Amino acid sequence: MEVRVSKLTEYIAGMFEMDPILRKVRVVGEISNLKYHSSGSVFFTLKDGDAAISCKMWRQYVELLRYELEDGMEVKAFGAVEVYGKYGTYSLIVKDVEVSGEGGLMAAYKALYSRLRDEGIFDPSHKRPLPLFPRKVCVITSGTGAAVQDILKIIKSRNDVVDVLVYPVLVQGENASKEIAAAIKDVNDRSADTDVLIVGRGGGSMEDLWAFNEERTARAIYNSRIPVISAVGHESDFTIADFAADVRAETPTAAAALAVPDIRDVRVNLDDMAGRLRGSLDRLCAERRRALELLSPEHMLVRLRNRYSFDAGRLAIYSPEKLTRMIKGRYDTGRAALENEKDRLSSGIQSRISERENGLEKMRIMLEGADPDRIVKRGYAIITDEKGAVVSGAAGLNVGDVLNIRLRDGSAEAEVRKTEVDADGR
Predict the structure, then answer these.
(1) What is the pLDDT of residue 186?
(2) Which end of the chain is more exposed for a tag (fewer CB within 10 A), N or C?
(3) DSSP H or E stretch at residue 271
(4) Residue 211's closest CA among 112, 120, 139?
């Protein structure tokens, strides 16, 4: 039989379309060569130890995924096998992907945790404190599960004045994370008087809790204006929602205890504070009463009498006559001391003046003895050069220099004809 390539390809494609197994097949393998296209579609290869198949997942199916796909992830891909006639190849058109076992879920969990952590979704600086006395608490969880009943029971047993709003949502399954995220946003937008959000569910397997490990849920919690308490599963369960929330509770019942204070403890604390305030007021009133009593006329009179009452002996000590004598004696003593000091200072000043006068007289005599005029009158002469400088030796003279000679009875002018300096320079 002879056929064209296109006809053969059409025949093979028709065979694929008629085969019920190939129209709805579940293929198990490991993802590789994963690529997210800008259109929103995803392309990857699914392989095991012996073979590989090309896979395509269009945008409308990608948007339904509960987690982001990663290379190396073990999955079960649901879809149909189709033939691409242009190249004569076949591929799996994937409509849904399920991570195989908890190992695959854990890989998806770790990948999302690392990405959101690096983005700052879990940053402690973003977390807000819970209010001390909330007036309204909203619980976002399954409306029929045991968790909501436990939360309501604990809240009402601890605090019967707080309002509680239950917002029922799916907490498991394909649309659970979408409902949880929408509920968080709705309460933030429409119930501004809500003080605390409790978001969670009871225990279960990792697959059961997966709605709280999805990016959509984590971002809704992070963007919530109202503080969020996560209450998912048991004490050993940790979800992405726990890290994104402001406070993590180990269980839903623990979340209820964290959300509202025990009104009995509050009353005990208020009674204790009231007692301490009454005691402080009683002590303050007693102190003010004693102060007022001290200001009464009777107390003031007693205080004045005690302050200004003197016996005869104290009056004798402070009599005017005795005080006058005491003051006069101190005055006389001080005056005598002042006179003595005055005489001592006068004597010292006079002695200093005499010493200075004697020193001045000695200096006057010395100056008169060094007077040039007196030296000339004794028969000496003073010789100066043409510039008027005194000539003190022959070493500085030259033949022909004109000298002025000052004598006792006049002066003369001379010319140097010869100079001779002593051997010793004198």
Answers:
(1) 96
(2) N
(3) helix 263-294
(4) 112
